[in-house]
Amino acid sequence: MPKILEETEKQLGTVPGTILYHGAKKTSKVKIQIIDYTGKTFVEKKVKDVKECFAFKKKDTVTWINITGIHDTYLVKQIGELFDIHDLVLEDIVNPNQRPKIEDYEAYLFVVLQMVYGTKKVETEQVSLIISDSFVISFQEKDGDVFDHVRERIRKAKGRIKRKKNDYLAYALMDAIVDHYFVVLEKIGDKVESMERKVVDEANSETLTQIRKIKRDLIFMRKSTWPLREVISFLLRGESKIFKKDTTPYLRDLYDHTIQVIDTVETLRDMASGLLDIYMTSVSNRMNEVMKVLTIIATIFIPLTFVAGIYGMNFTHMPELDTTWAYPVVWIIMVAIAITMLIYFKKKKWL
Amino acid sequence: MPKILEETEKQLGTVPGTILYHGAKKTSKVKIQIIDYTGKTFVEKKVKDVKECFAFKKKDTVTWINITGIHDTYLVKQIGELFDIHDLVLEDIVNPNQRPKIEDYEAYLFVVLQMVYGTKKVETEQVSLIISDSFVISFQEKDGDVFDHVRERIRKAKGRIKRKKNDYLAYALMDAIVDHYFVVLEKIGDKVESMERKVVDEANSETLTQIRKIKRDLIFMRKSTWPLREVISFLLRGESKIFKKDTTPYLRDLYDHTIQVIDTVETLRDMASGLLDIYMTSVSNRMNEVMKVLTIIATIFIPLTFVAGIYGMNFTHMPELDTTWAYPVVWIIMVAIAITMLIYFKKKKWL
Amino acid sequence: MPKILEETEKQLGTVPGTILYHGAKKTSKVKIQIIDYTGKTFVEKKVKDVKECFAFKKKDTVTWINITGIHDTYLVKQIGELFDIHDLVLEDIVNPNQRPKIEDYEAYLFVVLQMVYGTKKVETEQVSLIISDSFVISFQEKDGDVFDHVRERIRKAKGRIKRKKNDYLAYALMDAIVDHYFVVLEKIGDKVESMERKVVDEANSETLTQIRKIKRDLIFMRKSTWPLREVISFLLRGESKIFKKDTTPYLRDLYDHTIQVIDTVETLRDMASGLLDIYMTSVSNRMNEVMKVLTIIATIFIPLTFVAGIYGMNFTHMPELDTTWAYPVVWIIMVAIAITMLIYFKKKKWL
Amino acid sequence: MPKILEETEKQLGTVPGTILYHGAKKTSKVKIQIIDYTGKTFVEKKVKDVKECFAFKKKDTVTWINITGIHDTYLVKQIGELFDIHDLVLEDIVNPNQRPKIEDYEAYLFVVLQMVYGTKKVETEQVSLIISDSFVISFQEKDGDVFDHVRERIRKAKGRIKRKKNDYLAYALMDAIVDHYFVVLEKIGDKVESMERKVVDEANSETLTQIRKIKRDLIFMRKSTWPLREVISFLLRGESKIFKKDTTPYLRDLYDHTIQVIDTVETLRDMASGLLDIYMTSVSNRMNEVMKVLTIIATIFIPLTFVAGIYGMNFTHMPELDTTWAYPVVWIIMVAIAITMLIYFKKKKWL
Amino acid sequence: MPKILEETEKQLGTVPGTILYHGAKKTSKVKIQIIDYTGKTFVEKKVKDVKECFAFKKKDTVTWINITGIHDTYLVKQIGELFDIHDLVLEDIVNPNQRPKIEDYEAYLFVVLQMVYGTKKVETEQVSLIISDSFVISFQEKDGDVFDHVRERIRKAKGRIKRKKNDYLAYALMDAIVDHYFVVLEKIGDKVESMERKVVDEANSETLTQIRKIKRDLIFMRKSTWPLREVISFLLRGESKIFKKDTTPYLRDLYDHTIQVIDTVETLRDMASGLLDIYMTSVSNRMNEVMKVLTIIATIFIPLTFVAGIYGMNFTHMPELDTTWAYPVVWIIMVAIAITMLIYFKKKKWL
Prior knowledge:
The structure is a homopentamer. Chain A is of the alpha+beta class. Chain A folds into two domains: 3-281, 2-Layer Sandwich (Beta Polymerase, domain 2); 288-347, Magnesium transport protein CorA, transmembrane region (Methane Monooxygenase Hydroxylase, Chain G, domain 1). In chain A, 54% of the residues lie in helices and 14% in strands. The longest helix of chain A has 63 residues, at 248-310. Chains A and B meet through helix 1, helix 3, helix 6, helix 7 and helix 8 of A and helix 5 and helix 7 of B.
């Protein structure tokens, strides 16, 4: 079954808002990590019971609850109850392969993003964010280092992150995900570039398979980047009260990055489309060369063989056969034919 | 006659609003099923006379009248009179192969959807919904199980459906239809995937026919999904008073699913277009290989045959013929020619 | 000269608003038919003098003046004066091959439509409508039966047409024209379907010419249907006061039909584009097959002929020639070579 | 240097608003012609000194100053001063190959149009119009007859032009230019039509060059027609006060013509694109035919030659050689092989 | 690593707003040049310490600070502090390969542009502008002469630049960059034109590589010109207070130029796409010619060789062999076969 349809089958017929995990279990242990800070204070804590999160649900500090592993639907439901989250949101969180989107539930914003990774094959991991004035909850499918830079900056009070609020934290998380796209795009870009050189010289079915894979990866990338633009654009338009005005320049920066990602995906798609054209042309070129060799050899030797055939006939009365100079004359004729042909080919630029 | 035009011919020249069934009779018996419920009550009933429906036309309960079989135009007319439905609506109901659409008649909403099914070939069944504050009437062309999950949820009071109103019921029915698209898309997706592997190895006219079929199915899917988006979008924009504000999150969810269906159709179309390119390239590749074999054999043996032809000539004066070492020398020359050719082909990477 | 440009040459340099007929004379006699009715009354009359029309120019009855033949520019001018029509409108009426359009002159609406007909080749006839509160004037290029159904319905008071006003009559006329598109589309659809089967088996230059014709017909259809949508959409938006609110559902129905026509044209275009791809692939496939046959025969017999050539040489000292078993051994070698080749081809799946 | 870039090089680094003529000098003598009229009066005059124009700059008459030759930048500057025209406008007037555009300087409108002409190759001439309430100044690159019809109509008081104001005159001039497009389009249309027939039979590199030329001409046409639409649309929206309300129907007519020009360009582009496809298919078809002939001849005669080769061998012990019936039997075998082959080809439909 | 991704890798994980130079060091020495003028005064100065700039930060004069070399991040930071510039702006300045954009920070406008140059390969240099009411700061990656014309005009008080304000200066700088696009486009245009001629005659893999390069350069150009349009359009809409109303005609002129750049890029892309089609067709044409030669030679001589083979057979009983006229008759037959074939080829137009 193609990946694009992987999750859909199991959803059919279930009650909308049912919180059932449909993806593959990408991590065994569910981890809950809480980071709570103001400009001056800093608490980092790993908790086992989700109820411990509740203590941090207050307005005056920035609270980031990061949950790794979304297959534990019971836990997701508990969080839903604790933080008063709509059932449809919870359903979306536990269903990977959602389209990137943003939904405004007034009390909170629900953002679904797709993180891309992988070197050989592009894969995605769904990251969901619940952003309110008092907390940011992030859901990851599995452990990853994409948010490590953000954590580090909070811990070391590097940059302006510790002085800012929940909306800046949410921005920082989204920025980390968007920046990660470049890593994957760069790898695809390298592949396209190396294929461009390769395709002129070696056009075989293996090259064809590689082009096909690149094209699929880019279709994949495209599907997850275009809706991303709408998500950031929604925030940038200031339609949500959660994102404050002083975060706008950062969102604009994030929007620029997203546009750059989309631009790059489109450019790579253009180049990948060109690959197949060059491949086809390259195959045609080589066929042409093969044909030329065949034609040169055949058109030189077939007439010569015919001449030889003539004098191989066993007629009793063939006066030429008995003259002494006949044999060398035939040789001269043959060489003349061959040279004429070669001159013709030279003129036609086949040689 | 192509399916896309199947119904149109018979409509010509009829009075607009004429209720004449034009489709093929897909079910023999027309069935009328009434489900009437509130949070606490539940009535399920099969009726023969359409007038029995009238009793359920009241505001305080959720009433779902499901009619299977639309060829009984008399019955459709009766319903039209009972529930005060516009003639053009009735005409659309009994005319299958309508484009998905929504029409707001203030007292009720009229929605036409196309349900897709079929494994070998994609087929569609028209489902029409009349949605008002006090009832939902659904018209199906034939018996099907697409609404069974909804019925089950109402019967078992599973999920939130029994606590909700007519608008939620209408949403649930539309959701069931949209979800069904994924089943069909998945099958097409499987076919595309298997074709992608097949097309590299076996590019014959049968493969070509299969690609053509997939492309047609996707043209078909596309035609019924794009207008679907407009339908849901109309409801989501809150332009109808029948859909209450608390149903909006569910409509948004439905809209997301529709977008995902369209996305998938477009992705599959992209992939299907790629199939033909790969097919062409694959055919070219193989032709190239055939040509190489011919060229190698021909360019090696044609010159050799010429040499043999020379010494098959019957000239009286051919001094070479009589020397003892001439025959082995000719063999050596021939082997040398053959080896030279082979080295040339090796260099050209034809071997 | 291509049809799309047929009329344009003669217009050059004429004063804008000049009423000169530029088309071919499609009918010899100009006919003026008046149908005048209310819910209760009915008058049908053929007149010779256009001034007789004037009597019917009153608000309380529905008046339909149908003029067949637009080459009589004097008559058109007279009508222009009688009913106070702008010169540019009259110019457009007598110039066939206009783009479908609607123009609001407040006192009346001017609608240009293209009626399509023809089985072998798609042809168009321009139908112009002048729609006001008190009359509808229709101009046809030649006699046709497209409006016969409408006439019949008025005569027999069938459907709701007799109870309705001028705007409904105008709708009925436009509906008749749009419905006629389906007849032509169906024929093109049949051709495309039959070509799809044909193109796989018989790809010759005649098939190519047919594909080209279908493509041209569809370019043609497209040119006249897209602007049609804008025309109906203009009416549907309620921008004209002549079309009353109770006609809106009918216009919406008409709009749906127009969209369906456009959809079908686009689908057929998609399919027609696919035809050429399949044609190309089909030609490649067959070339491949031809090549294989040549290669098989050539690669089997060329080496064998070489072997026969060897022992046809006339060297005095060829020890093999004189041994008894040499001849059968050569045969065995030849058969071995042939079998080896055949196994090779079997493995390559060329046989 | 490609034409599309012809003028740009010399502009670089000049002060914006510098009035330097960059085009080729298309006419040697600059001509200034003044036509001044009201409904009753009419003055036509050729002047040498631009200052004479000033006398006609008054509101109550329609004044048309037509300047042929734009290389005399001093004259253009003088006009600029006399009529108080912005420097950037003057710069645009003397720079040919501008994109069609309209600019509203409140006191006057500045319109740049491209007139197309030429039979073998499409060429353009820039026509600039300065339109105010009291005068219309037109700048042409060289003498031409495109405005002759307009002049004639004014002189002979034909049509409504003499009764109308400056805005109608400006419309008439623009109409003359747009109408001229049809002449060129018609010629291209003829070429496309004749190529369509030619390409099936004669697909050689000369045909290819012709297709390429048609495509370039259409790219060219497209570049100058799309912006034209925006120009007319600007006037039609009534954004300028210079164009009065009673000119609107004429502008709408002009807009229709422009749309028709664009439609035709697009249709011809579609058809021209199709030409290359047909060309390719036609080449493939013929290659196929060539291959078939080769294959038929080769597969019939190569096996036969082999048989002949067998009995040309010089083995001492070949029992067949000495029997009387051997020779006719070999002939029978050969004919049998040939007939078998021919039946095979018949079955394959290669004959 | 492809250029389009060159800079992105190093940005990952850095704090947003971090001012780290990521590009290659294109110039060794950072230069700061100040030009300060009013209609009457003029000061030009090269400074080493950035603090000297501060003296010129006043409203009544036009101040242009041009900084060449952006790798000195300390200097950029200092300027940021002196002129109160947002950190994200400074980050964008030192990060080359940004997408052209404009950002309105109320006190100043931040514009990023890409200057293109290069003859063999298109390269870009990022130019950033900070435009306020009292100064314009421009950042270049390396020394260049693109702004020399502007400097010269200020020095010599040529044109209107000295009489105008900061907004006109900013316009002049942007105009200089946009005008430079034409130089590069012209070179690409020349290449495309020469390729068009070349591709018909010489279609080899080197031509293919050149087409590929042209296509990439145009993808590149396209990426930097489309956003440019939005930048100028933003200014033209008058959304910023810094650009005064009297600069609007100049911005409109600039906008026109930008559109013309985009138009030209698109036209060249169209033409470059056509190149590959012509290439393919050209290759096919030549293959066809090669095939014809092979077929003509083979189909003439293969049957003749067969005939010769027949009479080379060594049957004892071949009555023909002993008749005197047999040999000339065989010759006549052979010539007849050859002539028949040649007539056939003539008829098929292969000769």
